[in-house]
Amino acid sequence: MRDVSIIGIGQTAVAEHWDKSIRDLAVEAAQAARRDAGIERVDALYVGNMLSGELAGQENLATVIADAAGLLPVEAIKIEAACASGGAALRAAALGVAAGAHEYALVVGVEKMTDYLTDGVTAALAMAADADYEAGHGISFAALNAMLMRRYMHEHKARHEDFAPFSINSHRNAARNPFAMYRQEITAEDFAASPIVADPINILDSAGICDGAAALLIAPSAEARKTRRPPVRIAASAVATDTVALAERRDPLVWQSVADSARLAYAQAKLGPKDIDLFEVHDAFTIVSVLSLEACGFADRGSALKLAAEGRIGLDGDIPICTLGGLKGRGHPVGASGAYQIVEVVQQLRGEAGAAQVKDARVGMAQSVGGSGSVTVTHILQV
Predict the structure, then answer these.
(1) Fewer CB atoms near the end CB (10 Å): N or C, the chain?
(2) What is the reported pTM?
(3) Catalytic residue among 17, 83, 102, 322, which?
(4) Opening angle at CA 178, ends 175 and 180, nearest 5
(5) Which whole number is the average pLDDT over 47-55?
């Protein structure tokens, strides 16, 4: 298997794009990644998307995008792994290049969510839960995460306001990201006053509904060194799964797929948590940040809230997270979020993150989580 590197990145602003279709967003990001790399050749296209059939009325999406981007007749495949779809698309592309099936593979994560009313989007997202035993009874993802948060608060004697530093950090970093949707800082008072969505989760605990696309061009590392942009090596790519339904798990506060995916990635990269300079965590809800930090070995069980309270998740902290806003501050166009995370890690490792730059960043980790921790894709990137 060959070493693989990222040689080009592109993204659209995350927003409510009333004037752009799902293919428009995908093509814009794809063209930006190809320009960034200075490479026109594409041998395969992998599209990360969750909801195009449900919300955009469009399946066969990868072929639609290949056509619109002028890439026919290349191989084009859509990858769906709930909210982990963007990360899963990069893994599929990286495996193809590593195996020698392709030289240049283009990854596009894309989602168009805002054309539907919130109730319709909420119902569509719930398809990533257990249809028979969760979604079929009207339980939304906000409700599932609210149960996790309530249980965490009970077991660890935590208060809801203890979760505020995660949202504050994400918004502070998003304010420095021109592609982010929520570019305004918030305070602990703002967090406390935010309306409840599913008790105890409030609006500022939750990532917003939005549209966007992010793209990556990858190549064998031997070829990547010849391109005009500094290559970023994919040191590890790993995926793990757990039960879809929370009730099926022995302990719902142990996110086993997150832990297993991280463990596999650490082993591939021959690194550990202490070697990671920044972590793009899947902060769809603040409780997800907490459970992920603990599952990945950055904090002991029950101690992630303390990590945040002490400011250790900030840009100059022990383990900076959500460095350009994360899902909460940048926005969470679900099938695209994993691709945005990778684009942002590349920016950090190239030293191109501007006011949000993590000093001396050499190793970054990005983790995409689908469902309530039912599928997790972890990538470690290195320069």
Answers:
(1) N
(2) 0.97
(3) 83
(4) 65
(5) 96
